[in-house]
Amino acid sequence: MEAHPHEGEAWLVLAQALKDDAAAQAEREAAYKKAVELAPRKESAANSLA
To answer: What is the tally of structural domains in the chain?
Structure first.
């Protein structure tokens, strides 16, 4: 994330990487929210929050 903090796709990839880690639920949700904020047309990020 340090390399591309303003890329919605990067946040989405991070959130998806955390999907199987129950301990990272808050971090995963925050990453999805950031992805939606930066790439609002990226439906997969918005759908994952629903």
So the answer is: 1
- pTM score, whole prediction: 0.85
The range of the structural domain enclosing residue 23 comes to 8-49
Q: pLDDT digits over 1-50, tens only?
A: 787 789 999 999 999 999 999 999 999 999 999 999 999 888 888 888 77
Q: What is the DSSP string of 3-50?
A: S-TT-HHHHHHHHHHTTT-GGGHHHHHHHHHHHHHH-TT-HHHHHHH-
Within a domain: 1: no
28, 19 in Cβ contact below 8 A?
A: yes
